[in-house]
Write a structure and sequence with these properties.
The protein has helices at 15-31, 59-77; strands at residues 3-11, 36-43, 49-56, 81-90. It has one domain (3-89): Alpha-Beta Plaits (2-Layer Sandwich), CATH 3.30.70.100. By secondary structure, the protein is an alpha+beta fold. A hairpin with a 5-residue loop joins strand 2 (36-43) and strand 3 (49-56). The longest helix is centred in the middle third of the chain and has 19 residues, at 59-77. It has a four-stranded antiparallel sheet, covered by helices on one side. 33% of the residues lie in helices and 32% in strands.
Length: 110
């Protein structure tokens, strides 16, 4: 089962600077963690927040990614974003462009 971490950050600077920091800092940081699968950065439609979405092979990897992300924001990106909240959970439904693009996720207990 894959795990997803969603981080919500308040935007304090330019989205261009956030994108630069993501490409040059956050993405290389995530790639060093075993179990990293993907990273997306999404500005909210109101322009006030940025949503970070990462996918991981295990919960432990997702948790490590979350710790590293919090450190990165504090140490390198606090001038442009502040972490509001984050969530980690199993990907219970996952689909690609085609039905057969991705194996179906096992059922979620509870």
């Amino acid at each position: 089962m894959e795990y997803v971490r969603v981080g919500v950050m308040q935007l304090k600077g330019s989205m261009d600077e956030v994108n630069r920091l993501a490409r040059e800092g956050a993405l290389p940081m995530y790639r060093k963690i075993a179990g990293f699968l993907s990273y997306d950065l999404v500005p909210s439609s109101d322009g006030k927040n940025v949503i970070s979405i990462t996918r991981w092979r295990t919960r432990e990897a997702a948790e490590q990614g979350g710790r590293n992300a919090a450190d990165f924001v504090r140490d390198k990106a606090s001038h442009v974003v502040s972490l509001v909240t984050s969530y980690i959970g199993p990907a219970t439904v996952s689909a690609g462009a085609r039905e057969d693009a991705r194996p179906s996720a096992p059922s979620y207990p509870g």
